[in-house]
Amino acid sequence: MPNNRKSPPFFTPPDSPFLVPCDGTFLVKDAPTGPGKNAPGAAECREQLDRLTDRLDEQQRVLYAQTQYAVLCIFQAMDAAGKDSTIRAVLRGLNPAGFQVFSFQAPSVEEYAHDFLWRATLRLPERGRIGIFNRSYYEEVLIARVHPEFLVRQRLPGPPDESLWERRFESIQDYEKHLVRNGTVILKFWLNVSKQEQRRRFLGRLNKQKKHWKFSEADIAERAHWDTYMQAYERCLNKTSTSWAPWYAIPADNKPYMRLAVAQILTQALKRLDLHYPTLTSEQKARLVASRKRLKEES
After folding, report:
1. Rounded to two decimals, what is the model's pTM?
2. For the chain, which residues make up each domain, given as ranges?
3. Consecutive 10-residue runs of the chain (299 residues): their mean pLDDT?
4. Which CATH superfamily is domain 28-298 in?
5. CB 260 within 8 A of CB 49
């Protein structure tokens, strides 16, 4: 596949120590799962997150009013990494009319009958909105790679081999480039939880009755494939982290720190856009003056 991942986007990805490089050098084993020694504590993380969510609220209002850009945030992770709670924490307080969340489960019969990007296209955010994908089309180069038996349901032409994944990576690059060219900001977050922390969280679910519903025996079965999943994630992030649709490998063992890191990246990305409230023409202003006059006359 040609290396064309440096085409200039209409915005520069936010700086972050967790930005996955576009040169294919990312290594899962070197990616931190917890905050560093100088990272803020849990209380400070929550205070900073509160300030950022206030800023994000104003940014989202301008984004919604301007209707020039859409923002798509993709979250991928192993089970119990904290996708749901992070999405809830970062987006709390926003106008529900300005964002939408879609959680992708196992494909339906109809979805299996289409290409692997089809169902995501139906759920893309409109201009002016922030769209959240809780899992996404990336499942088709992650879980489908770990469990190739799922490919049987897709009735692909020809037997699946290594070239299938390369073609899918290329399709994803082209798809995301097309979205960016048409005004969609794409930010992709891999919540990097350690196997030890996942075990602790699973035990927490088993030890609390109100969390029993969140646990499945399949979660334990998937842990047996941990190393294979890490290989799949490493390959995926190296192949699809681009200047126009970057991946961020967010440490996920500490939830307050993880949520703050995601919020920082999202607010920085919106700050780098040319966001402003629409400017009215002289004709539009004249109509506002007339409307104001009519309303005052009513009283």
Report:
1. 0.93
2. 28-298
3. 55 92 97 94 97 96 96 97 96 91 93 95 97 97 94 83 93 96 96 97 89 82 95 98 96 98 97 91 92 89
4. P-loop containing nucleotide triphosphate hydrolases (3.40.50.300)
5. yes
